[in-house]
Amino acid sequence: xxxxxxxxxxxxxxxxxxxxxxxxxxxxxxxxxxxxxxxxxxxxxxxxxxxxxxxxxxxxxxxxxxxxxx
Amino acid sequence: xxxxxxxxxxxxxxxxxxxxxxxxxxxxxxxxxxxxxxxxxxxxxxxxxxxxxxxxxxxxxxxxxxxxxxxxxxxxxxxxxxxxxxxxxxxxxxxxxxxxxxxxxxxxxxxxxxxxxxxxxxxxxxxxxxxxxxxxxxxxxxxxxxxxxxxxxxxxxxxxxxxxxxxxxxxxxxxxxxxxxxxxxxxxxxxxxxxxxxxxxxxxxxxxxxxxxxxxxxxxxxxxxxxxxxxxxxxxxxxxxxxxxxxxxxxxxxxxxxxxxxxxxxxxxxxxxxxxxxxxxxxxxxxxxxxxxxxxxxxxxxxxxxxxxxxxxxxxxxxxxxxxxxxxxxxxxxxxxxxxxxxxxxxxxxxxxxx
Lengths: 70, 355
Prior knowledge:
The structure holds two protein chains of two kinds. By secondary structure, chain A is an all-alpha fold.
């Protein structure tokens, strides 16, 4: 998955346009439902994740890094 | 554990839901949603409505209503029932087993085997497994009663879990006929804390403290005697384990995905179902998910709830290859592949008269 595709998917999950510089902590859409969406996306990409890591993500860049997408 | 049963056929499925239809729009204030989060819940989690039992109505009442409908409208005699298994987390009393009381209410013979099984979302599959075991050791007909009335364990204002839940009581009749069913069942108690009522049992007895509901870190208002759910853990568990399970059952039964008419999955929530379906790579028509949107998550009655709620005509008139899968509290999960034909499957019944 390219960076652009990932960010597009993420915008869909969050129901708001984001880019790689978006700060998740400032988004009220970054809620429990959105986190499930990201878990599903990681699962689709075969990215292993500990559930508690979800609380550590601060930005869209963090999410990209976890998925090894630059 | 994997088991192939040579005998046992689902002959009838009847479900009664609570009679009060509650729309999520009308629960906004109670759960403390703002307009925006409500819109998101409706769009992504497809929350729409749920059916709740009236005050005073227990799960056993919904199941007895379903069973009486069965005896009135289907060719099965009460004296031909060898066993009644009641799968529930909302029994009438802490003890004795509600199934035994139901034996008397339903006027089943005293030779009936009757007991309760404490399981939730995997309960349909486990109940059917027990029924098939009895059938394969000589029983003629086993009645499996299933379901829950959620106010017995869900915090009234807990926005984490309560808006998802609906009340239902089903009965499924399994009879001794030649028919192959392929079961696979799993348990993983390491995840017991992810769906739990922490207090009120022997480990943490009920006290004034455990009865107090208050606002938790996850935003839900509940007491320690209400059901807690770690949504993320359950979601991750379900989207990993359930597709694996279904692939395993397909292989075990020598069936291909395209040969299966319906994958009847526990109606946890629309979001989980959508993700499992995506991983399985099967069409939307084959994985019904409307039941959770309209009736709510009916725990052990959710699979029977789909049949009576949305597939009544299909099940009544056709021969179908189906895979059922349940997953959740325990953690416990399991599934089976079987063949059904001309099942007595009336449209869902709403509400029950209390005598």
